[in-house]
Amino acid sequence: MKKLFILIIFFIFGLQISAYGNNYTENKYVGRWVEKISERVVMDIFSNQKDSEYMIFITWRENNLAQKDIYRLRGTIDKNGNLNYKNGIHIYRFFSDKNLFEDKIDYTNDFGTISINNDILVWTGDKDKTKLEFIRARGDILKDSTIKNRLFSITLPEELRGSYEVKTKKDKIEIYHKMSKKTGFGGFVFGVKAYKTPTEHAILPGSRKVGELVDKAGILYDIVLKYPTDVQYDYTKSSKAPESFQLLYDVGGVVNINGINGSEYFKNQGMRGEDLYKNILEKHIIAINEKWDSTKLEKENMSYMYNVLRRTNKNIFDKIGYTYYDINADGIDEILIGEIADGNLKGVIYDIYTMVDRKPKHVISGGLRDRYYVCDNTFLCNEYSSGASENGIRVYNLVENSTELFPQVSFKYDEYTNQKNPYFISYSDNNWKNVTKEEFMRRKKVFEKYERFNFIPFSDIIKK
Questions:
Q1: Which runs of consecutive H residues, i.e. helices, occur in 206-356?
Q2: Tens digits of residue pLDDT in 308-347
């Protein structure tokens, strides 16, 4: 056991590298590319937060600048490192008799592959039997769709040039849909802003962190993506957003950001659980390995359940596990530590940690009769029981940049208060309303979709 303990400590401390020693390395596909010989074909590639899905825009400029071929593709990386797409769309864009650009879909369901070899990107498309080679775009090819402030720049697809307007400040860039703004419907699509502290942006609606930036003076900023919280296009004509508005909106979620003027941008920095909670995992493994009793566990803001489970499981490290999950949808992972179990206990959480002012903080501990689950993606459900005659569920939101759990609704079965009709609902603390069983079950059902996590067992850490 002593040897095992030494191995655990060696492994954990081996993980303690500096925050910026493990930062995001720019994906090799992401950015702007131009066709190697003529430079008339421009390819813009964007990736989502986890680099698991890619948006690809290809603009094929004809000699007559009034017409273009447009390709819109979505792809994923295969096991060989190639970017494969399917359901691609080819659009013919032309200047019509109405003195407007119009788009005509030529075909859909295209599929193909994009690969990189020796800094040359190769696009192979099926429908047109296309095969073109691309190189990285020079600065002059980027300038028409690159927007800057004093700290960072963003690059939008060439295809969308002309469909948007821009507002910039020293720390902010906002993108507006030109037609929606012109017709008096606001037109705000998305914005990117730098904040010095999390408290400046934590509770802003429609906002989530996408990375961090360090300026030339060494000041650290959170880079935050902001979306509109109400309809910003002409909804009187259609409930569906105009296509160019929707494309801009989609690009906002994957937009390429780069530090400028001596600043450096780190995509996903300060957001991913594997970078944030190494010390928390270390502490839990030490606590379990040293057989801390319930009193010490609770004193250290840890669930007593690790002591309970240790007594009944031969290898406790196979019984306790963890996962990373963004409960409050602010772009930053929480770490959830719980029991590896089946049935109703699958996904039960005994400890939750979140980031407050860029430091991990303990949120809550659960127990045998005080269990926590993630429900309906962004809520925490607390199942509690005082016996067969009283039990219930409390539903919370986790407040951004805080350990506070904000109550949403509570459901209680309480025979002590009303034996004949023991069904109660509360939308504020201790303000219970007696309801029928039918209403109780109907409203409670909304929060019964639990996330049944496949926790990573602590034994997997030790084996590494």
A1: 243-252, 273-276, 278-289, 294-299, 305-312, 316-319
A2: 999 888 899 999 999 999 999 999 999 999 999 999 999 9
